[in-house]
Amino acid sequence: MRTTVSSLVRPVLGRRGFSTDSEKVVASVLFERLPVVIPKIDPVVYAFQEFSFRWQQQYRRRYPDELLDKSNSRGKGDYQIDYIPAPRITEADKKNDKKSLQRALDRRLYLLLFGDSYEAPGKPVWHFPEKVYESEETLRKCAESALKHVIGDLSHTYFVGNAPMGHMVVQPTEDRPASPSFKRFFFKSQVIATNKFNIGTCEDFVWVTKDEILEYFPEQAEFFKKMIIS
């Protein structure tokens, strides 16, 4: 009986992977650059904070004037550094250079590629870094391979979690009847400690905001609105 059970269990646990007999699985990467500067405060939020501050001032504790006198509290040899904030509008913003990470510093940016995609074979289209699942240990490993194939090195990236952040089922459409049917899983990865990548294996690329992504994919706009939180 033990031999019979072992022979049944071993084939199941012998190989870790996904069943792709009926439908292909594609791992896509939402490669994200986080905001570099603090986003501007919404006018309504700013008005509330101003009201809250003035309300609290009515009941604040009064400290002696000599304790708050900066000229008396500053020791000999101390100096003051004038802080000059960096400009929010960069040269890349002025030129609308979407190939640069030095734009929209108060927004999140996402990498889009223009070239061959599994969804539209033989026809260049805008898409996220992607790879068809083959024999990788996990689907995240497949996503890592997809991003590595584009930027060449993952030392300045961070994959957020092991599970996908969303998925969609892609079916052939009227304008693309020959497109295959497959499932696409999205993984989030973030830019770490760099402001430039050598993007390859594509005809073109852009770094765009969430609102701009919706312009590139109008048919999937509702899906990306829910999946991308920014």
Question: Count of helical segments?
Answer: 8
Bulk shape: elongated
The total count of strands amounts to: 8
The major sheet is characterized as: 8 strands, mixed
Radius of gyration over C-alpha positions, nearest whole angstrom: 26 Å
- The percentage helix is 25-40%
Characterization of this structure:
The protein has helices at 2-13, 43-57, 65-68, 70-73, 91-95, 139-151, 210-216, 221-227, and strands spanning 24-33, 109-115, 125-127, 130-132, 157-159, 166-170, 182-191, 204-208. The protein is an alpha+beta fold. Strands 1, 2, 3, 4, 5, 6, 7 and 8 form an 8-stranded mixed beta sheet that branches. Helix 7 packs antiparallel against helix 8.
Short description:
The chain is built from 8 helices and 8 strands; from the N terminus they run H-E-H-H-H-H-E-E-E-H-E-E-E-E-H-H. It has 230 residues and is of the alpha+beta class.
Mind sketching the topology for me?
Elements: H1 2-13, E1 24-33, H2 43-57, H3 65-68, H4 70-73, H5 91-95, E2 109-115, E3 125-127, E4 130-132, H6 139-151, E5 157-159, E6 166-170, E7 182-191, E8 204-208, H7 210-216, H8 221-227
Parallel strand pairs: 1-7
Antiparallel strand pairs: 1-2, 1-4, 2-3, 2-8, 5-7, 6-7
Features:
alpha+beta; elongated; 230 residues; eight-stranded mixed β-sheet; disordered N terminus; 8 helices
